Amino acid sequence: MVRTRFAPSPTGFLHVGGLRTALYEYLIAKKNGGQFILRFEDTDQKRFVEGGMENILKSLYWAGIIPDEGMFLNEKGVVDQKGDKGPYIQSQKLEIYRKYADELVEKGHAYYCFCTPERLKELREHQQKNKLPTGYDGHCRMIDPTEAKQQIANGHKYVIRMKMPKEGVTTHNDLILGEISFKNELLDDQVIIKSDGFPTYHLAATVDDHVMGINPVIRGDEWLSSTPKHIQLYKYLGWEIPPIGHIPLLLNPDKSKLSKRQGDVAVEDYVKKGYLPEAMVNFVALMGWNPGDERELFTLDDLIKEFDISKINKSGAVFNLEKLDWFNQQYIRKLSDEELAERAMPWLKEADLDSMPKEFLAKAVSLEKERIVTLAELPEATKFIFHVPEYEGKMLIWKKSSVEEARKVLRELAEELDTKSVQAWNRVDLESDIKKWIGERGYQNGSVLWPLRVALSGQEKSPSPFEIAEVLGKEETSARLKSAISRMI
Ligand code: GLU
After folding, report:
1. At the top level of CATH, which class does the domain 393-487 belong to?
2. Among 26, 41, 47, 265, residue to substitute to test ligand 1 (most atoms within 8 Å of Cβ)
3. 322 C-alpha vs ligand 1 centroid, how far in Å?
4. How close are the terminal C-alpha atoms of the chain, in Å?
């Protein structure tokens, strides 16, 4: 059974890189009829952030990545856990890690270490000064376990370190990156239980991946250097080593590691800005993976069918915001007018437009569907529909025309439009009727359509006057024409 897991630390928000990792893990599980598990790695209590778990889960749910097991949001939107391999929050199972750490000590694969933070600091300074590799020097490795237990009984503070082999190499066959070898002599005797009794990431992740039956283990490649330590732990504990794959990093355009300094990295920032989840999912999926042909548009369901771990790139992927914008535009254009208004509701609400009739909102947003990049732009882009715009009379005058002509044209046009039936009040009929009328009168298109458009929108740039007139309706169009005429007196 394929069982993948996403194992974030609840330190606040979901990073876009984390979203991509979770997505790939989810896709690998779903493609193979497997399960996607979510667990929280909160062994570093200093980094704990209130609400962090909920925040991460909300971002995942927004993207449609719903865990089958482990941590989830219940119907009340509250963080909860389900499954028979829990707890799925590491801080809730300290005694389990402790049991395995004791077993490692028992078997001689781990030892108590009493080195003080001061000694470790001095050691590091000495190594740095002498340009030696930094790391623990094995000072407590030889302490006899009975003596060590005596020291503990006497109240001495300690950590538990694993004994790394000092010779040979550890070879890891990465599912994504291929074969990688690590020289054992360069690997530190890693702490597995800290002085506060909490396990470190290495022990906790290894135990959990085993106990939860994770196969394959997929994670970001910032964890690659941990892999030989984990492999050693699996061996010491007599467990089968699962296949492990590392996803290459997301990079800034200057190829540095994607960081906050160069823009938003939290998924929630993109949610707030009005990016659609389908655009975000499609975008992150293609950062580091491609289907092997030119296709670019993939829904989550398409991705489940198409995703192939062997096509994940081995090198880092550049986070290109313009591409995200492009995806967002594509998905916005696919929405019906009603859906667009519905999806934009949080932003329309913020602009106090949510009490408008739904049909009217749908028509209004349809005017900007082809132009906007994000949903958040809609209130500003459509505001001229909802509020009579403020503008100066001189904006009504087309560049090849005069105030007299503009006034005359608008007066005549207002009269003409008054005779139109409400049935014929749609963009197609309005366009053909008004263009015919222009021809009959011998006007130039610009001298009529420019003032008409400005009269209706109050803006130099806007959708066509026929589209706006349809959305405004006959009465409001007529009122705006009259107001325009009065601005030129
Ligand atoms: N807890 C790690 C993180 O916060 C994940 C490590 C892993 O996936 O093994 O990113």
Report:
1. mainly alpha
2. 41
3. 29
4. 79
Q: List pLDDT tens digits, range 194-230.
A: 999 999 999 999 999 999 999 999 999 999 999 999 9
Closest CA to ligand 1's atom 8:
219
d(CA 199, CA 43): 6
pLDDT at 174: 98
Q: Where in the chain is the domain with CATH 3.40.50.620?
A: 3-90+250-318, 93-247
pLDDT at 31 over 90: yes
Q: Mean pLDDT, to the nearest integer, of 459-480?
A: 95
Residues of the chain with CATH 1.10.10.350: 393-487
Residue type, 276: L
Question: Packing angle between helix 16-31 and helix 277-286, nearest 10 degrees?
Answer: 80
Domain 3-90+250-318 classification at class level: alpha beta
The domain 93-247 having CATH identifier 3.40.50.620: the answer here is yes
What is the residue type of 148?
A
User: Which residue's CA is the closest to the ligand 1 atom numbered 2?
Assistant: 8
Query: For residue 198, how far is its CA from the centre of ligand 1 (angstroms)?
Result: 16
Q: For position 376, what pLDDT does the model report?
A: 97
**pLDDT the model gives residue 422:** 83
Question: Given 260, 305, 349, 358, which residue is catalytic?
Answer: 260
pLDDT score at 47: 79
Cross-strand partners of 169: 183
The pair phi, psi for residue 370, each rounded to 5°, is -80, -15
Phi, psi of 65 (to 5 degrees): -95, 95
Q: Ligand 1: which residue has its CA nearest to atom 9?
A: 219
- Ligand 1 binding pocket (C-beta < 6 A) is 7-9, 41, 205, 219, 223
Q: Whose CA is nearest to atom 6 of ligand 1?
A: 7
- pLDDT confidence tier of residue 388, bands split at 50, 70 and 90: confident
Respond yes or no: is residue 260 known to be catalytic.
Answer: yes
Domain 335-386 has CATH 1.10.8.70: yes
The DSSP element (H or E) to which 40 belongs, if any, is none
pLDDT tens digits along 161-172: 999 999 999 999
